[in-house]
Amino acid sequence: MEGSGNWTRREIGGDKDxxxxxxxxxxxxxxxxxxxxxxxxxxxxxAAILWFWKAINARDRVDSALKDMVVVMKQxxxxxxxxEAIRSFRHLCSKQAQESLDNLLIDLYKVKCGRIEEQxxxxxxxxxxxxxxxxxxxxxxxxxxxxxxxxxxxxxxETARILGNLGWAYLLQNNYAASEVVYRKxxxxxxxxxxxxxxxxxxxxxGRSKEARHVLEDVIQSRFPGSxxxxxxxxxQELIREIPLQPATPTSTSASETNFDVEDExxxxxxxxxxxxxxxxxxxxxxxxxISSFRDQITC
Length: 300
What we know:
Blueprint: H1 9-13, H2 19-22, H3 31-41, H4 45-57, H5 62-75, H6 79-89, H7 95-113, H8 116-131, E1 141-146, E2 149-154, H9 155-172, H10 176-189, H11 193-205, H12 209-220, H13 230-242, H14 255-258, H15 262-277, H16 286-291, H17 295-299
Helix pairs in contact: 3-4, 3-5, 4-5, 5-6, 5-7, 6-7, 7-8, 8-9, 9-10, 10-11, 11-12, 11-13, 12-13
């Protein structure tokens, strides 16, 4: 059989065989099952991708087939193919799968392709969904997986995570003013040491050494969650050592040149939405009760 020399009927999952349970692969004899066997058991990513394609074309567990194929492609440094696969076939996937596909796209844009502007637009789109209460399929929490373990993520955590990614994207564009504002908002929602380091970097790049030092010293003194991570502490210490050596770096584009206004992009939009939602409080998520109080602090 193509791409699966060790394939046996028993391994696919006879009634009395627990092979698929032990190896955490689905039972049956379909293109998707074969793809998972090749990916997980035989460790043959090339053949697995081929069978994931067959599963998608056969409409066999399309949600899982597309997501799993993209993950394998990313591992094989085939990010551009993975992006095109999502764009071409996501319309075949369920509504519930769209958010996961967006997260995969963001990761591909960020890590592999350097497509920063596309990443920014997708992150803004995800924020727009949160503002309208459409994220997590209308729920306030969702179940996520990492390294085989399940855990719960709240809308508040997701908002801070997306803002952190948006801040990093602006940082990569040398748009330090925008990055600073977004990181400050993320820190107000759910502070952590890594975002604090990135905020410190934004301030250093703008020549605001005193503010940067204050933020980074808070990291070193374990005033943020995650400050117990040695890598983050080392990062903060390295940034502090850079402060006397780092001249201010002008942003790549000014607000007047791009008509970019962080307040318009992030803060005023939230305020307008809150005004719109006020009569229908069932649509207003608790996180926005907190965000509405952040605006004056961020814009001062």
